[in-house]
Amino acid sequence: MATVKLTDLVLRDAxxxxxxxxxxxxxMLPITDKLDQVGYWAxxxxxxxxxxxxxxxxxxxxxxxxxxxxxxxxxxxxxMLLRGQNLLGYxxxxxxxxxxxxxxxxxxxxxxxxxxxxxxxxxxxxxxxxAAKKTxxxxxxxxxxxxxxxxxxxxxxxxxxxxxxxxxxxxxIKDMSxxxxxxxxxxxxxxxxxxxxxxxxxxxxxxxxxxxxxxxKCAEAGADILDTVISSLAMGTSHSPTExxxxxxxxxxxxxxxxINLLLEIAAYFREVRKHxxxxxxxxxxxxxxxxxxxxxxxMLSNLEGQLKEQxxxxxxxxxxxxxxxxxxxxxxxxxVTPSSQIVGTQAVFNVLFGRYNKLTGESIxxxxxxxxxxxxxxxxxxxxxxxxxxxxxxxxxxRPADDIPQEYEKLExxxxxxxxxDRVTVEDVLTYAMFPKVAPDFFKKRSQGPVQFTAEPLxxxxxxxxxxAPSNQPAKYVVNVNGADYTVVVSPAGVGPAVTTVVxxxxxxxxxxxxxxxxxxxxxxxxxxxxxxxxxxxxRYGVAEGAQVASGTTVIIIESMKMELEIxxxxxxxxxxxxxxxxxxxxxxxxxxxx
Length: 596
Known about the structure:
With about 600 residues, the protein is α/β, with parallel strands linked by helices. It is built from 20 helices and 20 strands.
């Protein structure tokens, strides 16, 4: 019997880390039969950012993905990554929503719930753990690993004991940034094995180049399960290669017993699949030792690049990475994992663009005020003061944040019915709306169009005899689907005239459902004070009514940028006139409103 088991992350964390969570289910299903033969301890295939990405970018129902994978993997446990009280969103949910989500995920196919809290606050585990116990599924408590003065072996042992006491079936050290060094990993695992009598799994990204050595030393210290990724989607911001670890341990007391030839077949399949997502590839493909200071997790790096590009600030990546370390300290040293990584990372971007804490995101304000739970260390008092003033609070929240959230499932169900225009709604759709109420309505409208496709498919040509192939000097035609719309792409062959690529929309064969038209943005009159958007993003709501009399400093617009909310305030007193409708994508410095 193998003494070390492997969990492969190819269906979730690998593509989240390497190409912004864009892999579609149709690229997963053809290889599931072979994945199911391997004998993994589990396959991580759901949760994390996959839910958000599926409805935001892929026009794909994440619940359907889970059901299809469960049917295709009858012998292998499916693991999901669950953010405790945050579930898969970016806020805390009421306990009844947490319970309903866990119950539904278990019913639809999740076998292992890897539950973590970004701040390692045990109070934020309780609702999810209690709900998972009722399903009878495996509960794995994950400790978010960080290297700060407040994260010590003694602290991790204390957390492990807490999680074992509340009913965790196994424990995971979640090293999302590749910070766990080999010998420190050895000492940590040794200490944990003495403290708790449950299996220990090690999750370590390859970002800093240490992960293979770290997994070896952790196995030597007694780790029971290791997270790996099939080689064609390994390394860089991803994880250690599965085949490499199998070969390292072969013939040793840690032999995994897995078939290297079967793994190589799987690697060959994903080598081809990876080509579909080249446009989303992170440029961080080697070892990036800057992360030893910034502590940015693998999945965040590729997203951070895209966010900076969207803001027209790609050249500021190094400054942002340095600023992240400052913000993390000022925010009380939260481990950098979703959602705290997005909160700290986006705030670092805003600090670089606008000056330190001149613009706080709504999520930064909530974190500083204690709405996400207890941070490991004291926070910057000036930043906390700004947050409390915004929220009109006298002091930080010290109780379990979810205690302030009334039961909300029925309310969310009613809202989902209105959005869908129906009297009956599935639990899955209610929960999708609950996770992302700003994104879900648009997804529901477009869902029937089916998932996007990232593979280029040749146009169906008229029948041509096999003996008469098309001339090699003719333009090549492809149909590419982008966000649900088909485009004909005509590429001139190399060496024949100028290199030209033409992109033309393909006429729909039948009218596609469209949303009600949104008025075009209006131009400023020139007689008032213009309020520009400080960043690129989406105008999600107004803070006051059209034509309202506002005072200087009043929040008048809220935009979503880099998945975080940012309040835009009036710069003078007067009557406000909005120039851009809600739901509009806006550019940096675009005029949003005018005060007269």
